C-alpha cells in the first residue's frame, strides 16, 4: 500500500526543487526527507529523480507521481478548508487570483458562473501582478489564476494552462474620438491620442509590433498597469484605448464608450492556470464551460 507520508515528502522535494529546501519547509532534517523519498522510490520500483548539476529533476515516472500527488494533496487541502471554515454550511471555497491587466468585466463574466452553481461557492478573489499570483499558486494558496497569457515554462512553477477563449482586439473611445478615427481605420490611428496597457500586459508587445507593421505612429498619452484605470481615463476622453471586443456591451454601459474599429491581427486570449491538469473543482468546470459557450461565443459568431 502507498505510504502517503513518503509521498508527501516526495511532493515537497519536487515542489521546492531539492531536499534541503523541502527539509527547511517541513522543519525536518535533510537525511529524514532523503531517506523517506528513497524508500518511496524503492517501494514503487522506479527512479523518481535524477541529478542535474546541483538540482534534482523529475524523471518521467517522477512527473507522473508528482501529478497524482498534486491532486491528492490539493483534494486534502480543500477538504481541510471546508471542514475548518464551513462547519455550519457547505460552501465550496474557490481562491482565485486575477491579473491586474485582465479587464474587470472579463474577470466578472468568467467567474460569475461559479456563483450560480446549485452547490454554494464562496469566492475569494485577489488581484495582483502575475509574478505574485504565480508565487501564490506555487504554494497552493490559490486554486486558479486568470491571466492574459499562459504560465511561462521558465517560472519554475508547476501549473497547467487552460485556454478559456479569445476574441479580436478593439479600440474604444468617447463619441467624439470614435468619430474622428472611424473613417480609414486603422490608418486613422496615426497621431491619434492613445492610452496603452503597461509592459505587464500581453497586449503591449503585440500592439507595438502591429503598429510597426501597419506603419502607424499613434500619440501615446499614457500607459497603465491597471486596465480599470485605463478605461477611466478613456471615459473622460483623454484617448482611445485597446481592449477585447468581448467587453463592448459592458464598456458602453459602464464607461459610455464605443468601438472605433477592430483588428483580428491581434487576439486577446484568456487562460485559467491551475495547479492541476484536470479541472476537478465544480466551479472550475463551470467557469471553463461558460467561457467557451457564453463569454466568447457571441464574439466568435459575429466574426
UniProtKB/TrEMBL annotation:
Gene3D superfamilies: 3.40.190.290, Winged helix-like DNA-binding domain superfamily/Winged helix DNA-binding domain. PROSITE patterns: HTH_LYSR. Keywords: Activator, DNA-binding, Transcription, Transcription regulation. Residues 2-59 form the HTH lysR-type domain. One of its GO terms (molecular function) is DNA-binding transcription factor activity. One of its GO terms (biological process) is regulation of DNA-templated transcription initiation. It holds the Pfam family LysR_substrate. The keyword ATP-binding does not apply. PANTHER family: TRANSCRIPTIONAL ACTIVATOR PROTEIN NHAR, TRANSCRIPTIONAL REGULATORY PROTEIN NAC-RELATED. Belongs to the LysR transcriptional regulatory family. This is Transcriptional regulator, LysR family.
